[in-house]
Amino acid sequence: MSEQTFKHKRHEDSVATGLMWISPWLVGFAVFLIVPLSLSLYYSLSDYPILEKPVFIGLANYERLFSDPTFWIVLKNTLVFSVVFVPLSTVVALGLAALLNKELVGWKFARAIIVLPTLVPAAAAAMAWLWILNTDVGLLNRMLSPVLSVFNLGAPAWLQSKMWAVPAIMIVSLWQIGQSVLIYQAALREVPESLLEAAELDGLTGARRFWHVTLPMISPVVLFNVVIGIIGAMQVFVFPFIMTNGGPGTATYYYSMYLYDNAFLFGPQMGYACAMAWVQMMLVGAMTWMLFKISRKKVYYRGGA
Amino acid sequence: MRNQSSTFKPARVASWLLLVAFTVAFALPLVWMVLTSMKPANQTVGGVTNVLPTPIAAVPQYVTENYTRVFTDPVVDFPLYLRNTLVVTLLSVAGTIVSSAIVAYGFARVQWRGRNVAFGVMLATMMIPFPVVMGPLYVLFKELGWIGTFKPLWVPAWFGHAFSVFLLRQFFMGIPRELNDAAKIDGCNHLQTFLRVILPISKPALTVVGLLQFVFVWNDFLGPLIFLTDRDQYTLALGLQLYQSQTGNTPWNLLMAATTIVIVPVVIVFLIAQKALIEGIATQGMKEA
Questions:
Q1: CA distance A18 to A13
Q2: How far apart are CA A266 and CA A259, in angstroms?
Q3: Do A221 and B285 make contact, defined as CB atoms within 8 angstroms?
């Protein structure tokens, strides 16, 4: 025991050797991350139309953000998207993982079909869904119309409708949920069978057993995926960019899209875009920190890891 | 196949029907895409009963016609975009494998002070949203004279890809240390150990990293959108969007044929390496475990 601890703590190699081995990443980290981040901070304090040199203007960009109605719209849209989509996708992914883990006939085939869309390029997925969601000739409305007409209802105009555009983007995003399903599947398999059996003996079955035994056991994985999910949802871009271009009106206009437009189209106003970028990063950081903080008591780490 | 036939449970049947329903729902967009790409334009619209191309015997002719038209489009040069995508993807995949393996060795097998801190920093960088750096990256690449070339899309891959490093480090750490010690006694230094001992037995892990990177680069949309300004350099993902938006009313059968072309390579990779990919993807959520 003591020998192992000793062995573990000993550093056989010099720091220089270590740094040499990781030097590709160190250089990349400096050039492709630290430099852009520092530049971004400087630009965010400047007026910078790209073609001319940046001019220092202090906090003016940040002040402008607060009085920019579009900023508040995209921020609200993005927060709403995240707050709805992350829990929704977590529930669906967990449900699918539990369903697959029953190992019913053909489950491996089902898993392959559920994972496949995750690998489909987002641009291609957007096209396939544009076709499915087409109001007049899309497959979804072709299937829905006969049913809805029974109740005297018209089919939704999906991407052209202020009410349905956001759900439509969420449906497309849910289609690419396969990665979380795989992760949850692996986590669920790690839950000790003996524990589930013991719970059953104590009279806990079905949903209650899942809530009181299974969920606490996999809570670190859930937390991690929720964090990753929030980070992803806060930068939602490709589907709304291709499928609705932010519309109708500003219904699906999201933070990253407005940032992109400012950085490359409107003006361009790189300084303003960089101020947006820093606010985005602080928001994501704050949300991650809060999640870890809130979940501290709820998340169960086995073996005190 | 555990006692499924001996104990018939209605709950199990209900679960199975649910599984079937989900499978159909997930498959439908791709099935519908392929079916549409095999129809003439006038058959793409119509009621829900118009599912299959008619007559079925004409399918080879429809397919040839649609796909030929996509590949010979006068404005959107799909063969060129396919070539561009391949170039960018292969250079990125090669760079990721080489650089990430080296860095991962430094994190897994070289014992140095500060290693865990550096590794923690690397993991933390994965949380930084790309939109945060895309503006200044564009400026940086412009200063370097890289805008108008493929370099912004593949050069960074040669500097270690954080997730790939993580994956390879896990694998390297699982290799028995005795192999290192034995190599050391034989007079091997780290470089020789890396090349002669670690790399040869890490082929499965290197394959997974390569496959995941292939899918990642093939699918990238935002990177090419920002860094490729010249239409002749577009990748398939960008070309597809151009194809869809250029006229505003591209016939659906042709758009679905183009979409199928973009997806097929990824599907082939998936079919060949399903097991490795599924394991690799599943690992992505286990970072802290």
A1: 7
A2: 10
A3: yes
The interface pTM score, or ipTM, of the predicted complex is 0.89
Write the CA distances from A128 to A165, A302, B256, integer angstroms.
16, 43, 7
DSSP tag of A136:
T
- Which amino acid makes up residue A223? L
Which residues in chain B are closer than 8 Å to A133, comparing Cβ atoms?
A: none
- Report the gap between the CA of A117 and the closest CA in chain B (Å): 8
pLDDT at B162: 92
- C-alpha distances (whole Å) from B4 to each of A104, A164, B1, B10 are 9, 42, 6, 12
pLDDT tens digits along B169-185: 988 988 888 777 777 77
Nearest CB to B129; choose among A119, A139, A235: A235
- Contact between chains at B262 and A124 (C-beta distance less than 8 A): yes
Three-state SS string across B118-142, please?
HHHHHHHHCCCCHHHHHHHHHHHHH
CB-nearest partner of A14 from B112, B218, B285? B112
**Considering just the CA atoms, what is the radius of gyration of chain A in Å?**
24
> What is the Cα A215 distance to its own chain's centre?
21
| Beta-carbon separation of A122 and B256 below 8 A | no
Q: Is the pLDDT of residue A10 over 80?
A: no
Would you say the pTM of this structure is higher than 0.95? no
Asked if B162 and B126 count as a contact pair (C-beta separation under 8 A), the reply is: yes
- CA-based angle B201:B205:B211, to the nearest 5? 135
Q: How far is B91 from chain A (nearest CA, A)?
A: 16
What residues of chain A lie within 8 A of the CB of B237, using their CB?
A: 121-124
For A41-92, give the secondary structure using H, E and C.
HHHHCEECCCCCCCEECCCHHHHHHHCCHHHHHHHHHHHHHHHHHHHHHHHH
Contact A262, A276 (CB under 8 A): yes
Contacts of A143 in chain B (CB under 8 A): 48
Quick check: A127 and B278 CB within 8 A? no
pLDDT at residue B3 is higher than 50: no
Across the interface, whether the CB atoms of B133 and A274 are under 8 A apart is answered no
